[in-house]
Amino acid sequence: MKKINLIAAVCENGGIGIKGDLPWKLKKELKYFSRVTKKVSNPSKRNAIIMGRKTYFGVPENKRPLPERLNIVLTGDPSANSYPSEVVVCCSMQEALNKLDTAPLSEEIENIWVVGGSAVYKEAMNSARCHRIYLTEIKKTFECDTFFPELSKQFKIVENDEDVPREIQEENGLEYQYKIYEKC
Question: Which of the residues 48, 49, 72, 75 could staple to 88 if both were Cys, CB 3.0 to 4.6 A apart?
Fold first, then answer.
């Protein structure tokens, strides 16, 4: 069974979204998200990204499904919306993980990333399979209606991966920093 990692950008008040969108415009940070969630060591494989329905539909229509990754959408009503055939629709995190643990997906997928929203993050963080959280900490408060779950004491900050910048980044007058937390 593969471990799961989470990736999120969070502002100082814990916010991650407002009205189905990001509260900030950070192109370089979005490129970082894309690079990290696409990165594989075996070029014959790809990664899976798991997200809730609101997160999926929060992605601009011309950018979804997110390319070069298996998109898995969690929804309580899989028949309510139409999804492209390449999107895997599941009713629960457990159903998604079961599919990823079973051939042929188990051989095709290298890493599993959870990309939002709030309830999906919380469930993933409580899972025994949760390994790391890749958090972009935005050094400003924004008005938000969706928030990242509070990090419990079982998550400890670790050294950034070799290809993850350690220094504070700046874009559009906003400072942010990449941090990695590992579940103990």
Answer: 72
Distance CA 172, CA 62 (A): 24
Query: What pTM was estimated for this model as a whole?
Result: 0.96
What tens digit of pLDDT does each residue of 89-107 get? 999 999 999 999 999 999 9
Label the pairing between strands 4-11 and 109-114.
Answer: parallel
Give catalytic residue positions. 22, 29
* Helix, coil or strand: residue 97: helix
CA 9 – CA 161 distance, rounded (Å): 17
Cβ neighbours of residue 157 closer than 8 Å, sequence gap 6 or more = 179, 180, 181, 182
Rounded to 5°, the CA angle 46-165-68 comes to 15
CA atoms lying within 13 Å on the CB side of residue 26:
25
Radius of gyration of the chain from its Cα atoms, rounded to whole angstroms: 16
